[in-house]
Fold:
Amino acid sequence: MAITLMSSLTTFAQTSIAHINTQVLIEAMPEMQSARAEIEKLAKSYENDIQTMAAELQNKVKLYDSEAQSKTEEENRKRIEEVQGMEQSIRQFQGQAQQDIAQKENELLEPILKKAKDAVIKVAKSQGYTYVLDTTPGSGVILADGKDLLIDVKKELGF
Structure:
């Protein structure tokens, strides 16, 4: 038992642990700012399209409401169906827009996350760390008293 305990303590003593807040690192990366700008531009474009579609719908509803008294029941029924179809089209477009934005975000973030991870691994290995804990809030780390690699990884990435 004592030999096993001593062996475990020796192994633990040889293990070196560092920590880094990957969220802070990724937010500071220049690539992240350009990715965020591209995503915001796409989102704004979809938002403008949706607003245009909604304005067209509102104008049509106002026109149809004002003309309802002078139209037949059949014409009014067709107009209601048309308006409902437009509303459904807008909802579908909104859903597709959300999917497109999420896909673009994943597409842009994947290489940034990989670059950050590769840099963390490179710096940790070059400094002899066996483990690197992520101190991003919510990651489950309670104590991070080891070396923080954030500054060194930023240098590795050139900023």
Q: What stands out?
A: The mean pLDDT is 89. The two ends are 50 Å apart (CA to CA).
